[in-house]
């Protein structure tokens, strides 16, 4: 543990020095009162300690899930649980200090403090982080399987994003790029820091630890460059306080990258200590950036569209613009890259893999990028009709292509089992990956979600629950949540079509083809029903009824909506656009399902032919 002290000292000294140098410069710019030196220094110090605790949690989990073969041990889970409790306490303390930071000083415990913590975005983000960390602490302590520990790790990553989604990345021009870039940067940097710390405390194979560090370094640097380009949009603005911190963090990161390369070549423990200390300095500089005002948020003239979406949409959509006016969706572009790279890596290890399956998989990944990053994805934020079209592609067409790619079958053939490893004399890494794949597939949650009834209800019910309730109008202004909604639709589609036409066997009992056909036919009318409801509606579903106090003290009901606030001069009538969305939902929902029906019938025919052939061979063998 003493090897961790230099990193802890380096991080704390860096964050305190940066906070002292920044002083109170940000408060006048943001229109806030000076809360005093205790709050001024306490906020970054608590944030840095919370980041360190989160790094311990993720470092222990990654160490037990990826670096060390098998299920995380009780010791690893105990360390992760204890660090998660510390993280929760520090996050809650940061929330209290953040209220003081934006209120001009500490607020006395009581109703005023509670109100201050729930009405402002920044404290809410830290409260969400504290709750998530507490749940992780309990979860990981009770986790007994690899898949359960993986779930705790995923929740820990999500908990990290609470402060990110309420920080400076979600405001200003380019926030649609900056928010996911900062989120990926924070997760990758935290895992990198934690993995290096775990390597010092419990040394294991440097190859595996180095591989995790290398992946984290690539993601950290790439996302950091994108976030910096958004938050510091011009070279001249590098001279600002925020820009200087960006340059300092970039310089130290370059040094860390050199140390990482040298460590992977030599395996030196001293270089591990150096790498950890330098990463702690980078983390501290990143915390200090939250105390400065990014140049992109400086006062400037912007349109309502840019303020709400992060980018301009000056012209109405045409077929040409939908195909050519691209704007990267960082989340789904990154997901598509991961899916392509992993599938291609497995593909190189397998001979005789059907070409059609590979084409289907890569086509699904490409269509996912087109649906989210082309003009379709861009105009989906501004027009309900394009938004519905995007979700029809994501929830039906893309999942069909992905499940026909049979990734699980490919993985099982590419990753050797224990017998193959012993016969070939290969190392255990492939066997570990195979075991983890089987553990994930055997997870109770996945078995539940792939039950035909559950998969069908989630698939056909999601549009009704999301669009025909206040949920859509409440969540839409929170632009950073929309990728999560799209991921929900994508996941629902993958689970449903995996059950219906998937080449890979589903966890649990396989449905006979006649039952699959019945489930598919039963689900088809719901897309038409959803479209009919949209077509018959008298008011746009995106509108949110609200109540304001009138002059006389009574209640005055008014209707507002996200699309009207965009103030697009070319925007069509909202109800007319909803009618277009209804027709698109109808056509783009039912037509692909007809294709799925044909695929299912073909699969059924091939299965029947194979069964007949097997029966004839068995009879011939008995004669």
TrEMBL record:
Membrane disposition: Multi-pass membrane protein
Residues in the signal sequence: none
Main location: membrane
One protein family per Pfam: Caa3_CtaG
Transmembrane segments annotated in the record for this chain: 49-68, 80-100, 120-140, 152-170, 182-202, 214-235, 241-261, 268-289, 330-347, 359-380, 392-411, 445-468, 480-503, 515-537, 580-602
Alphabetical UniProt keywords: Cell membrane, Membrane, Transmembrane, Transmembrane helix
Location in or out of the cell: Cell membrane
Domain of life where this protein originates: Bacteria
Protein name: Cytochrome c oxidase assembly protein
Annotated source species: Actinomycetospora termitidis
């Amino acid at each position: 543990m003493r090897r961790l002290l230099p990193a802890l000292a380096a991080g704390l000294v860096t964050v305190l020095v940066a906070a002292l140098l920044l002083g109170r410069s940000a408060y006048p710019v943001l229109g806030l009162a000076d809360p005093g030196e205790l709050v001024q220094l306490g906020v970054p110090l608590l944030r840095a300690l919370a980041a360190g605790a989160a790094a311990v949690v993720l470092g222990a989990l990654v160490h037990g899930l990826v670096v060390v073969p098998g299920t995380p041990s009780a010791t690893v889970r105990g360390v992760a649980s204890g660090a998660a409790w510390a993280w929760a306490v520090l996050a809650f303390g940061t929330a209290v200090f953040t209220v003081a930071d934006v209120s001009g000083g500490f607020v006395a415990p009581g109703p005023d403090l509670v109100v201050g913590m729930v009405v402002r975005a920044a404290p809410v983000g830290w409260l969400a982080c504290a709750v998530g960390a507490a749940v992780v602490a309990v979860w990981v302590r009770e986790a007994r399987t690899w898949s359960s520990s993986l779930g705790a790790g995923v929740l820990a990553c999500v908990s990290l994003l609470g402060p990110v989604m309420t920080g400076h990345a979600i405001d200003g021009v380019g926030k649609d790029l900056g928010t996911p870039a900062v989120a990926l940067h924070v997760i990758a940097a935290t895992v990198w820091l934690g993995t290096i710390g775990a390597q010092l405390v419990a040394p294991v194979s440097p190859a595996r630890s180095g591989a995790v560090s290398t992946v984290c370094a690539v993601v950290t640097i790439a996302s950091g460059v994108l976030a910096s380009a958004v938050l510091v949009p011009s070279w001249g603005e590098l001279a600002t306080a925020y820009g200087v911190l960006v340059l300092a963090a970039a310089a130290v990161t370059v040094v860390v990258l050199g140390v990482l390369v040298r460590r992977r070549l030599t395996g030196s423990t001293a270089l591990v200590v150096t790498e950890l200390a330098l990463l702690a300095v980078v983390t501290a500089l990143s915390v200090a950036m939250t105390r400065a005002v990014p140049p992109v948020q400086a006062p400037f003239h912007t349109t309502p569209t840019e303020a709400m979406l992060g980018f301009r949409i000056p012209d109405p959509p045409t077929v040409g613009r939908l195909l050519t006016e691209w704007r990267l969706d960082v989340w789904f572009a990154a997901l598509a890259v991961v899916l392509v790279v992993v599938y291609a890596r497995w593909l190189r290890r397998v001979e005789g893999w059907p070409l059609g399956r590979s084409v289907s998989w890569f086509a699904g990944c490409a269509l996912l990028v087109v649906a989210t990053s082309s003009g379709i994805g861009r105009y989906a934020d501004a027009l309900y009709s394009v938004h519905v079209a995007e979700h029809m592609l994501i929830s039906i067409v893309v999942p069909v292509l992905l499940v026909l790619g049979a990734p699980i079958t490919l993985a099982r053939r590419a990753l050797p089992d224990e017998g193959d490893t012993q016969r070939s004399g290969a190392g255990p890494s492939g066997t570990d990956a195979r075991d983890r794949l089987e553990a994930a597939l055997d997870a109770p949650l996945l078995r539940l979600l792939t039950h035909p009834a559950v998969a069908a209800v989630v698939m056909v019910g999601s549009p009704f629950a999301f669009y025909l309730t206040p949920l859509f109008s409440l969540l839409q202004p929170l632009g950073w949540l929309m990728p999560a909604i799209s991921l929900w639709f994508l996941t629902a589609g993958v689970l449903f079509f995996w059950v219906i036409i998937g080449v890979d066997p589903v966890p649990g009992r396989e449905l006979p083809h006649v039952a699959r056909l019945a489930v598919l036919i039963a689900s088809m009318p719901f897309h038409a029903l959803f479209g009919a409801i949209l077509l018959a509606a008298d008011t746009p579903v995106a509108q949110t009824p609200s109540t304001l106090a009138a002059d006389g003290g009574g209640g005055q009901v008014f209707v507002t909506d996200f699309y009207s606030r965009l103030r697009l001069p070319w925007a069509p009538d909202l109800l007319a656009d909803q009618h277009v969305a209804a027709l698109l939902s109808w056509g783009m929902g039912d037509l692909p399902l007809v294709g799925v029906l044909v695929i299912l019938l073909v699969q059924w025919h091939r299965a029947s032919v194979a069964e007949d052939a097997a029966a004839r061979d068995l009879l011939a063998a008995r004669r």
